[in-house]
């Protein structure tokens, strides 16, 4: 069965999309069949992998809409290839704003993404969901559909502001719709020369110990460049520091997941 991972933080611009693509591509490189879901109406993940608004075909908005207006759907047509083998994507589009508003009026809407993902639960080793910067209904649906949530957190002063509210949302989801949801923190955009970065990382290590990945993602401008190329970082520049770090993260995640699966 697929291990489903949401990448979420209601704070904007903290590397959610970058982490979804880079981690997903490194998992695929290690032989895992990996599906990325763009669950943000901004569609940055789709755009970064070369899927534009005017690309033909249906999106995650259409998939969710079937719960409001039932109709026949060819589910596999939602899935598009990327430049990498074993890495596929379901794109999003701006209509997801409207679908979010309409679906949230439906009782039990929290489970709707989970129902959509059930179509492929044996086809992938990992399904990664790129969340929007909010704690609204889309995020609640993503957390309900997931085994774990990875929270990217910038190693900056004030970065942890908002974390309490996000963890309260995780607790609420555990209580109401997904009792087994795990959460992990990932330190990102770390600059070793900067004393504030070092101090924030130490605090995160003290406060979250086992929940914090030992892999830390540093600042690497190649991550900004690769977006324009439509390629994930490990394909765009296999030797750059961010590639090495996201590869380590993929390995760390795999070990965590295998540990849980063996214990079950
Ligand atoms: N480690 C890094 N080093 C340098 N730049 C980075 C790094 N990680 C991400 N970025 C850049 O930071 C910007 C924000 O990243 P990204 O779009 O992944 O954030 P996000 O959390 O998905 O944003 P949003 O909340 O809008 O969805 C992008 O320009 C991205 O290329
Ligand atoms: Mg994003």
Written description of the protein model:
The chain has a seven-stranded mixed beta sheet with strand order 3-4-2-5-1-6-7, with helices on both faces. The two termini are 13 Å apart. α1 packs across α11. It is built from eleven helices and seven strands. With 264 residues, it is an alpha/beta fold. The mean pLDDT is 95. It is 42% helix and 14% strand. It has a single domain, classed as P-loop containing nucleotide triphosphate hydrolases (Rossmann fold). The structure holds adenosine-5'-triphosphate and magnesium ion. The site of adenosine-5'-triphosphate (ATP) has 21 residues, from α1 and α9. The site of adenosine-5'-triphosphate has 21 residues, from α1 and α9.
Task: Offer a few descriptive terms.
Rossmann fold; globular; 14% strand; 7-stranded mixed beta sheet; binds magnesium ion; 42% helix; 264 residues; binds adenosine-5'-triphosphate; 7 strands; alpha/beta
Query: How many strands, what sense, and barrel or not for the largest sheet?
Result: 7 strands, mixed
**Arithmetic mean pLDDT:** 95
- Ligand identities: adenosine-5'-triphosphate, magnesium ion
| CATH superfamily membership | P-loop containing nucleotide triphosphate hydrolases
The count of DSSP E runs of length 2 or more, i.e. the number of strands, is 7
CATH architecture: 3-Layer(aba) Sandwich
Shape: globular
Beta fraction: 5-15%
Amount of helix: 40-55%
Summed up, the helix count is 11
pLDDT below 50 for ≥5 consecutive residues: which ranges? none
Number of domains: 1
N-to-C terminal Cα separation, in Å? Answer: 13 Å
CATH names the topology as: Rossmann fold
Helix-and-strand structural type: alpha/beta
The CATH class is identified as: Alpha Beta
